[in-house]
Amino acid sequence: MPTSDSRLKVKRDGAIVEVQFRDRNILDEANIQQIGDEVKAIIEAETAPKLLINFTDVDHLSSAALGTLITINNRVRALKGQLRLSNIDPQIYQVFVITKLNKLFEIHETAEKARASFK
Length: 119
Known about the structure:
Number of domains: 1
Structural class: alpha/beta
Oligomer: single chain
């Protein structure tokens, strides 16, 4: 689980693990690597992970961060889990549309809607 120098805020709601970011800008390569490692540890601790990544307060996301999200998605699917994204800033969402990542990820307007979508 995340330590005090974690880049993430993690909370559990039953079988669902919700992750939020401490940083408004997810641009720095070292931070992205740390986020990826922390999320991987969370996923690996679950049998069939139900992971909600909540982007509340995130203003900027680098292409490296998008690559990390794809890796996380592949890992969750390999473990027969489910991944949801929520609360994505409209400008960031446009990047998901342009790159067609909105077709890869299940994206919800709010964390509540995302939580309700888990099977």
